[in-house]
Specification:
The chain is 29% helix and 13% strand. The chain is α/β, with parallel strands linked by helices and 160 residues long. The chain has one domain. β5, α3 and β6 form a beta-alpha-beta unit.
Length: 160
């Protein structure tokens, strides 16, 4: 039997969850932004204005097979960090494994690690650090953290 090639977010996780529409990082190459604009669900000028889907904050989760990627179409930013923590807690409580994907803000990553120490064996981090040149990062990812902050966030995981 021929096996299908796994593509997209399924390369890293069985399913994904998102809480926010838009992303303040406003990356020039963002696939989620391009799809939202193409499908008329957002505009290029409005994408960086994050909107929380408040209905998802009360969503109940059950134990699922495999990893859940959170987020996949936005990032965890200081602006809506409290809501992201609440949502992450809802995902983890039933025993789910989570892949946290981020262009990491140090304060957010430290707080996730502090809040969820009892879940540390069920959280995996995947950080995007596309360059060590902060000027290049600022061009491609204008609202995202610079190289030093991303590296510090990665280093902060040593304490887990």
């Amino acid at each position: 039997m021929e096996q299908r090639q796994v593509l997209g977010t399924k390369e890293w996780a069985h399913q994904n969850e998102n809480l926010i529409k838009g992303c303040s990082h406003d990356c020039k190459y963002c696939y989620a932004k391009a799809i939202a604009i193409q499908n008329g669900k957002n505009t290029a000028g409005n994408w960086k204005n994050e909107t929380v889907n408040v209905n998802k904050l009360s969503k109940g989760f059950r134990k699922r097979e495999g990893k859940i990627m959170f987020p996949s179409s936005h990032d965890i930013t200081p602006q809506h960090f409290t809501e992201c923590l609440t949502f992450l807690d809802h995902i983890l409580k039933p025993g789910n494994d989570v892949l946290v994907v981020s262009k990491p803000h140090l304060e957010c990553i430290k707080a996730i690690c502090d809040q969820f120490t009892h879940y540390k064996d069920r959280i995996l981090f995947r950080f995007t650090i596309g360059s060590s040149d902060s000027a290049a990062l600022k061009f491609w990812e204008p609202g995202a953290p610079d190289f030093d902050e991303r590296l510090a966030a990665l280093g902060s995981l040593d304490n887990l």
